[in-house]
Design brief:
This protein is α+β, with helices and mostly antiparallel strands. Helices cover 28% and strands 29% of the residues.
Length: 270
Amino acid sequence: MTVLDAATETRIDSAATRLIAAAATRTPCPPVRDLLGDTDVDAAYQVQRRVADTRVEAGARVVGAKIGLTAAAVQAQFGVFQPDFGVLLDDMVFAHAQPLPRSHFLQPRAEGEIAFVLGRGIEVPGATVADVLRATEFVLPAIEIVDSRIADWDLTITDTVADNASSGAVVLGTTPFPLLGKDLSQVGMTLERDGEPVSFGAGHACLGSPVAAVAWLARELVRRGQPLREGDVVMSGALGPVVPIGGPGRFRLALDGLGEVEAVIEEERA
């Protein structure tokens, strides 16, 4: 475990407190780079872990991980040009067509992805795509609702990492697909809002292939002492540009050969 000096501890605690308060009050906060700087990714992951630990202590359960900023189009949208990852908790996971209250989010956007469900953990250093393929039990079509506690999505890499890789929720399809014989780099994606196409993409936009993205994540997590486990759900990253959600609406993702999934955003009922 990394031993932190008192000044770094204070900065990390202050950043975590700011993000926790923003989530609790549903009020976006200023960026945390005034506390962390804009390059100290390790400190930002310490903040992320403390925020996640607070949620676990309140009753949430870690069920996997999410990869962010994998597609060049998304990196350009946010001005952050390297991938990152966050923690996936059980209270973030929804099923196909299950209503999501709009009030649950601050500044939500939708993106189409492929979710990996692991049949075994990946604990070896230097994990390869072969390790990922062996460990994957099946994949699912998935929509991620990305969100930011940082006001106006004003991000550097440390801001988004600290804020759990700008996570909100994930919506998983309910039909599993085995990977045997599938080239995920060639999977095409169409994301619609209320029947109108709003985003297009393909697997090769995700670090060359979603399999390569998950291998990157596996290496990073082993290096940080948090390896992927059997049963984990891994959101492998966007296949195309993210789309602002705004008000209520129905988002439908279609993946070539991997089925469909819908995210239904509703106003919260009284």
